[in-house]
Amino acid sequence: MELIQTFLNGLHKLFSRENNWTFLEPLVLSMEQCTACQTCAEDCPVYEASGKNEAYRPTFRAEILRRLYYKYVKPGNPLFKRFQHGNIELNWTLIARLLELSYRCTLCRRCAQSCPVGVDNGLIAREIRKLFSSEMGLSSRDLHEKGTVQQLRVGSSTGMIPLAVKDNVSFIDEEMTERTGIKVETRWDVEGADVLLLHNAGEILAWPDNPGCFALILNAAGISWTLSSDLVGYDGVNYGLFYDDVQLARIAHKHLEIAQKLKVKKIVMGECGHEHKALGIVADRLFQGVPRESSMALLAEIVFSGRIKFDPARNDFPVTLHDPCNMVRSMGIVEPQRRILRYLAPRFREMEPHGTRNYCCGGGSGFAIMSPYNFMDWRLQIAGRKKFRQVLDAFANEDPGPSVPKYVCAPCSNCKGQFRDLFDYYKAKEKSGLYYGGLVELIVNAMEDVRHPYLSWELL
């Protein structure tokens, strides 16, 4: 009974302006406007890949919360509410099942885009996670203990302390200089720089080409930029986006303080989708006077500025583009990366559907770093199934074997983690010649002054 009462306390807070002013209005609208038309179900890749299991229909978990809302939160005639929405018995089994179901959604919000009245089932799933985290202390250990708590404590979601980060980046600079023939030097703690670049720190460990290529491009373009060695300052990750507003705000506020301390003109968000949404949208009310810009826009400006000479023929291999949900669907950043690829990748082709209609990689909502229990099997066999099919279809007119390398451009660290695991699981590299990487790597590969080739299929 104590746990049930704690849950009810959190439910009331979820629908109070004092405790949930950030998301209250869209949440209430999503509670009260659903017509049960099930249009969203037809657009949900998880529901489809599960074999259309009713428990994974977008409206299933939403309807559980909706019935609880009308029974315990929304005033009115109880007989009318029971007739309209159905009764529900609140017990620990239901509460535990609701928690589990909230972590079977990638929060891609494709359902919200398709809803004719704007109901956001992705938001509902995320708010359920928040209720459990904030009120009951129940959340994914990977998102909380290994994610936001570790980031705030040591400075990075990867666990790297500032000294280790700087040592790693120094090594990356040396490797980049040797591979490209161009002196690459990362700039740290430059006061008054035009740009404070915030990477997903996972790139520094798992995909060092990415921060190295950013450094090379920004230097070559004559951009005044810097990284910060302060705690949290070199890591734009914000896993609070997926489960807890308080943790999100703590990290975002640290980014604000660092930008103000260095007196930079703007923050540029690196190749990380949830960093984009956390800093670019949700943290808007914190970032007074500190503009933020997507790296996609800055890279497009650099590529078409004439400051760097390119030879697109260096990227003469099949390329397709994955659209990170939080960058494209949530923020509408669709064209900058495509302008670059149309110019620098002669054999670029779109996935279908693409842009704001894209399918999630399957690693969204923190899934890409969640491995306990059956999360790995879930995201590889269910959550990522539709995206893997999309990738294969995009290259259907190419030699299906490994003799022709095929590049999936994924400008998001979280998505790259999912593609890494998907491709390993399905042996995509060995069977189909599928590789993945970011956008900046393709830009550097096409630079005339860079020793060719920069991209090495053996290293990808």
Count of the separate structural domains: 3
CATH architectural label of the largest domain: 3-Layer(aba) Sandwich
Which structural category do the helix and sheet elements fall into? mainly alpha
At CATH level 3, the topology of the largest domain is Rossmann fold
Number of strands: 8
Q: Strands of the largest sheet, in order across it?
A: 2-1-3-4
CATH level-1 class of the largest domain:
Alpha Beta
Largest sheet: 4 strands, parallel
Which band does the percent of strand residues land in? 5-15%
Mean pLDDT: 94
Could you characterize the architecture of this molecule?
With about 450 residues, the protein is mostly helical. It folds into three domains: about 1-140, Fumarate Reductase Iron-sulfur Protein, Chain B, domain 2; about 150-300, 3-Layer(aba) Sandwich (Rossmann fold); about 310-445. It contains 24 helices and eight strands. A four-stranded parallel β-sheet has the order 2-1-3-4. Strands 6-5-7-8 form a four-stranded parallel β-sheet, sandwiched between helices. Helix 6 (about 60-70) crosses helix 10 and helix 11 (about 140-155) runs parallel beside helix 15. About 50% of the residues are buried.
